[in-house]
Specification:
Structural class: alpha+beta
Strand content: 5-15%
Number of strands: 9
CATH topology of the largest domain: Butyryl-CoA Dehydrogenase, subunit A, domain 3
Helix content: 40-55%
Shape: globular
Radius of gyration: 22 Å
Number of domains: 3
Largest sheet: 4 strands, antiparallel
Strand order of the largest sheet: 2-3-7-6
Number of helices: 11
């Protein structure tokens, strides 16, 4: 694990830092800087345009598709500097980070010209249609079907836990196009317009009042025959590419959000005297250690990517399992530090915009950021692969243990 960045990466860091200092609002780096809701709203409207003009949106894309063609290390430096400054790097996560790079790698030239400009300019929003009621961790067992009818695919089935489906214009969807093929075969990766007859979206309201997860029902929904990415029946391989992009350039910065929350918990403990409790102090230290391990794991992931040592799947499983369980413990600690105060809703509702996890709050259930993180942490050991499944991956692929026996009724 090499923690020394080469001179050209540090030179690029200087360029990014100078751009941020020039383009962020005056006083942004001053201690105690804040904006009124009106100023925040105006900043959000103008910032995306500034990012676009600076070339920082989808900057890793090739220059022929309006990107900067950044290397992996340059992408990492870009993300690190935006994180250091606390500046938002616009990311329609599903468009910029997942389906866009997948289309770049697997798509036809026609698909690239059709879909990439809308993603780059923020004109097209996306959601991910992978999980189903009985096909979450065992994704290859999905039952949604797509049947070719002339020049269109006709889609029937159901997806669940589909984030932002109520706002999305397209869904990148896994559907079974050959029901006679083996489990991991016969699956195709379709790009389906959401605003059409035959698609019903039902938001799933969470305990904190947010509703970013959805059920999506497909009843003879359609998409063009040519909007299959990577070829018919090759969807499993394409989907694994998409999931691989999740670790991406944020490997060395993702720990920062956990560190920020930990610092907030420490402040609360000092404020109410809980920092004198030896058990609380012990748990705070454990949480800090976990956060530092996340930081080291990020460097390990980056090193693997730069050296092409192909440990991505194993590292991803270890990292996902570790941070999700660590975050749950830290949020349980936060509630214990707050004590009975944790039962009081002291947030500002939806006026402040997004809650942790990119969910929108509600005025009639005004949770604080810590309360919202506590609620969301309960799901983190499930989505993206349950902790139990991650342990199986580590045991079977990393340690060479026998596969877990299948359970048949």
């Amino acid at each position: 694990m090499d923690l020394t960045y080469p001179p050209d990466a540090e030179s690029f860091r200087t360029e990014i830092r100078a751009w941020l200092e020039e383009n962020l609002p005056e006083g942004w780096f001053d201690e105690g800087f804040s904006m009124t809701p009106e100023e925040r709203s105006r900043f959000n409207e103008e910032w995306t345009e500034r990012l676009f003009k600076g070339g920082w949106i989808c900057a890793s894309w090739p220059t022929e598709y309006e990107g900067k063609g950044l290397s992996t290390l340059q992408q990492v430096v870009l993300t690190e500097e935006f994180a250091r400054a606390g500046a938002p790097l616009r990311a329609d996560f599903f468009g910029d980070t997942l389906v866009g790079p997948t289309i770049l790698q697997w798509g036809t030239e026609e698909q690239k010209r059709k879909f990439l400009p809308g993603i780059l300019r923020g004109e097209t929003s996306w959601c991910q249609g992978f999980s189903e009621p009985n096909s979450g961790s065992d994704l290859a067992s999905l039952q949604t079907r797509a049947v070719l009818d002339g020049e269109e695919w006709v889609i029937n089935g159901q997806k669940v836990w589909t984030t932002q489906a109520q706002h999305a214009e397209y869904v990148f969807l896994l559907a079974r196009t050959d029901p006679t093929a083996e489990k991991h075969a016969g699956i195709s990766y379709l790009l389906v317009p959401m605003h059409q007859p035959g698609i019903e979206v039902r938001p799933i309201t969470q305990v904190d009042g947010s509703a970013e997860f959805n059920e999506v029902f497909f009843n003879d929904a359609r998409c063009p025959k040519d909007d299959v990415v990577g070829g018919v029946g090759n969807g499993w391989k394409v989907a694994n590419t998409t999931l691989g992009f999740e670790r991406g350039s944020s490997a060395t910065t993702s720990y920062r959000r956990f560190l920020k929350e930990w610092e907030r918990v420490v402040d609360d403990a000092r404020a109410n005297g809980k920092d004198a409790d030896p058990l609380i102090r012990d748990r705070l230290v454990r949480s800090w250690i976990d956060t530092k391990i996340m930081q080291v794991n990020g460097w390990r992931t980056l090193t693997d990517s730069l050296h092409g040592t192909h440990n991505a799947a194993l590292l991803s499983a270890c990292n996902k399992m570790f941070w999700s369980e660590s975050h749950r413990r830290t949020m349980e600690l936060a509630m214990d530090v707050l004590g009975m105060r944790a039962q009081i809703l002291e947030g500002t509702g939806s006026a402040e915009g997004l809650l942790p996890g990119h969910r929108r709050g509600r005025d009639d259930y005004p949770v604080t950021d810590l309360q919202a993180s506590f609620f969301f942490s309960r799901s983190e050991t499930i989505w993206g692969g349950t902790a139990e499944i991650q342990r199986n991956l580590v045991g079977e692929r990393g340690l060479g243990l026998p596969k877990e026996p299948s359970v048949k009724p």
